Amino acid sequence: MKTSPLCSAFIALTFAGTAGCYSGRVPNPVFGPISQAEQEARAAIQGEQALAGRPLTERVVGVPAFGSAVRDTTLSALSYGLADLLLTDLARSQRLVVVERLRLDAVLREVELARSGRMDDATAPRVGRLVQARYLVLGNVSQMPDGQLRIDTRVAEVPTSDIGRPLAFSAPVERVLEAEKALALRLLEELGVAATPQIRAELEPFATRNFAALTAYSQGIRSLAARDLPVAASHLQTAVGLDPNFAMAQTRLAQVLAELNARAGRRTRRSAADLALEQVSYIIPGSMADRPGGPVDPGFPTTRAFLIVNVRSQ
Asked: Domains of the chain by range and CATH?
């Protein structure tokens, strides 16, 4: 059905007196955990000047993805997975508050550091302020001549820009989680947390003993940092399939799927809004188009004009 040319003038006539017209509202979009983190990151950057003067809480620590210098490209993603595992191990101490991975990745994306997986001493203070962390654990994963993997870290104190002493641990590729556990204990001490028997016992269990699952998990965390969510979901599903007891992989997969479902919900809501608004255009009374002076139609005494708006997702 084609609308009379006169209908285009209705928009210019008036927006008043729309009683009796379609009044449905487009539901507020549902945001997943990643979108929420990105909103918070954008808000932090917009208010960065105010954050610069805010004192940082003691014992808040973030662990960005590590840099990578490995010859075997299949191992390069370990720099993301090991950093995530280390973050979880540091969180076992009640004396530390860790910056959640999604929030930290969102800030890194906003400052365009997520894809490189690198943060240097110069960028650490800014990122630390944005996530309100007093400490950032900076690190690098490298492959040694004998094939072992080495994890080098140092703690950056955000308010003073001081860089702590380097801490390094190495292990054969398949036993790299042993190096991560040893590093977690040393970092706790570096951050002023005593490695009590209770903490040592909590750190003892490995997230997984399946190296293929660890590799898939690391690839998923790297894709998550780059916001490539379908690929992240695929890798994380692989990790869970290889080791159904890999709790961290299950947690990250749930976050990714929640975000994908929220995206699908937003698209569905937009499509429903388009349909409803387009259907309104078919109930414009013909007599309104037939009256060149545009007086009120006796059949619709409370209606002056219809404003037809199409809202489409980009």
From this structure: 33-207 (3.40.50.10070)
> Which residues are within 8 A (CB) of 200 and not within 5 positions of it... i.e. 6 or more apart?
185
Alpha-carbon 234 to chain mean position = 17
pLDDT in tens, 55-79: 888 889 999 999 999 988 889 999 9
Cβ atoms 280, 22 nearer than 8 A? yes
- Contacts of residue 72, Cβ cutoff 8 Å, sequence gap at least 6: 143
In a 3-state reduction of DSSP, which class is residue 253? helix
Q: Say how far apart CA 200 and CA 189 lie, in whole Å.
A: 12
Cβ atoms 236, 216 nearer than 8 A: yes
Task: Using alpha carbons, list the distances in angstroms from residue 95 to 88, 190, 221, 286.
Answer: 14, 13, 26, 72
The conformation of residue 151, written as its DSSP 8-state character, comes to: E
Residue 75's contacts (CB-CB under 8 Å, 6 or more residues apart) are 143, 149, 173, 215
Taking the model in full, what pTM does it have?
0.75
Dist. CA 249–CA 243, nearest whole Å: 9
Query: Rounded distance, CA 64 to CA 86, Å?
Result: 10
Hunting for tokens 């400490």 — which residue is that? 135
Say if strands 135-143 and 97-98 run parallel, antiparallel, or are unpaired: unpaired
